[in-house]
Description:
By secondary structure, the protein is of the alpha+beta class. It has one domain: Arc Repressor Mutant, subunit A (Orthogonal Bundle), CATH 1.10.10. 53% of the residues lie in helices and 14% in strands. The chain contains four helices and two strands; from the N terminus they run αααββα. It has helices at 6-16, 24-30, 35-47, 66-81; strands spanning 51-56, 59-64. Strands 1-2 form a two-stranded antiparallel sheet. β1 and β2 (59-64) form a beta hairpin. The protein is globular, with a radius of gyration of 13 Å. The chain starts with 5 loop residues before the first helix and ends in a 7-residue tail after the last helix.
Amino acid sequence: MKRRADLVILMDILATLLDGPKLPTRISQACNLNYDSFLKWANILESNGLITKTALEGREAYSLTPAGQQVYRDYRSLMERLRAPRFL
């Protein structure tokens, strides 16, 4: 079984949050990660200021920061420039 690169996992999480805040379980399901793995990656993204914890329906959720939006846009731009649709 082929593993996804760490960068691809991080970008999948950012892409999942593009349309607004989501609960951790929804993000982990959308990114095909188990919950503990998602939390590990979320901590990395949060410590780098790319996502932030918010409240959604009275529960803890995650949302994209402006810096996270920019990083994702830069990633997409690079992949398009390299013509690497596999990572998009």
